[in-house]
Write a structure and sequence with these properties.
This protein folds into two domains: 61 residues, Phosphorylase Kinase, domain 1 (2-Layer Sandwich); 158 residues, Transferase(Phosphotransferase), domain 1. It has eight helices and ten strands. The protein has a four-stranded antiparallel beta sheet with strand order 1-2-4-3, with helices on one face. A two-stranded antiparallel sheet has the order 5-8. α3 packs antiparallel against α8. The radius of gyration is 18 Å and the shape is globular.
C-alpha cells in the first residue's frame, strides 16, 4: 500500500495510507472509526482520524507515530518490565479486535507503533536517548495497526479454510499442518502474540512466570491455548 506523510492544518504529523475500496481493510477501518476515537485509544489501536474518498478507493488518515518499538535496547530490569507493558498493550488491542470478530493475521513488532517518531539515521543515537527518557517517565505509548491482511469475521463464524494460514509470516503453529481443512484464526492470532516476547524468552529463569505464559500460548492443544483475553488476565 502507498503511504504518505503530511501535516494537518494545525501542524500535527499525520499519515495517509491508500486503501482499496470495499476491501476487508477498508471495512475494518470504517468499523473502528465508527467506534470512536476514545475507544481506539483506550484499546491501543492506532486511531483513524478520517477516511477520504478518492475515486473508488480511500485515503485513511492516522496520527504519525514511530516504529522500532523494541528501541531502546533492553539492558535493564526496568526496560524489560516496560517491554512487558508493551506486550500487555498489544494483548489488550488483540482482545478488543477479537471481541469485535476481527482477526489481525499479521502480528509482529513491525506492526506496533510508538508515539515517538525516529530521527534521521545520522541522529539515531540521540533519538534513542530521548526515547529512553520518555520511557523512564512513562510517556511512551504503543498501538497496533496494519489491517491489510485482517478479516472481519461474520457473526458466529469461528473457522477459516486452512489455506488462509499460508499468507502469514512464520514461525507457524501446527494448527493446519496435519491435513486440516479448517483452522481457528483467533487461536492462530493468539499464538503470534508470542513473537513479541521471543526477544526475552531467555529470561524465563529470572522471571519464572514467563514459562507458563509461553507454554500456554504455543501449545498445539488449541483447547488449552490461551486466548488473547486469557493471556492478558494471566499478566
Amino acid at each position: 500500500s502507498m503511504v504518505f506523510y503530511a501535516q494537518d492544518s494545525e501542524g500535527r504529523h499525520v499519515v495517509l495510507k491508500h486503501v482499496c475500496g470495499n476491501s476487508q481493510e477498508y471495512r475494518i477501518l470504517r468499523f473502528l472509526q465508527s467506534q470512536g476515537f476514545q475507544a481506539m485509544e483506550e484499546n491501543c489501536i492506532m486511531p483513524v482520524l478520517e477516511l477520504i474518498e478518492h475515486k473508488e478507493n480511500w485515503l485513511v488518515v492516522m496520527p504519525r507515530w514511530g516504529s522500532a518499538s523494541r528501541n531502546p535496547p533492553l539492558h535493564r530490569v526496568e526496560d524489560i518490565l516496560h517491554y512487558m507493558l508493551c506486550f500487555t498493550i498489544l494483548l489488550q488491542a488483540l482482545t478488543y479486535l477479537h471481541a469485535n470478530s476481527i482477526v489481525h493475521r499479521d502480528i509482529t513488532l513491525l506492526n506496533s507503533l510508538v508515539n515517538h517518531i525516529e530521527a534521521h539515521p545520522s541522529r539515531a543515537a540521540a533519538a534513542i536517548g530521548y526515547r529512553q527518557g520518555l520511557r523512564e517517565h512513562g510517556l511512551i505509548k504503543y498501538a497496533m495497526f496494519d489491517f491489510d491482511l485482517s478479516i472481519h469475521m461474520p457473526e458466529n463464524v469461528r473457522l477459516l479454510p486452512a489455506s488462509y494460514t499460508w499468507i502469514t509470516v512464520g514461525p507457524w503453529p501446527h494448527d493446519a499442518a496435519q491435513g486440516e481443512y479448517m483452522y481457528d484464526p483467533f487461536a492462530y492470532d493468539a499464538f503470534f502474540n508470542l513473537c513479541v516476547l521471543v526477544v526475552i524468552q531467555h529470561l524465563t529463569k529470572y522471571i519464572p512466570m514467563l514459562a507458563p505464559l509461553f507454554d500456554s500460548m504455543v501449545t498445539d492443544d488449541i483447547s488449552r491455548r490461551f486466548t488473547a483475553a486469557q493471556a492478558l488476565e494471566f499478566l
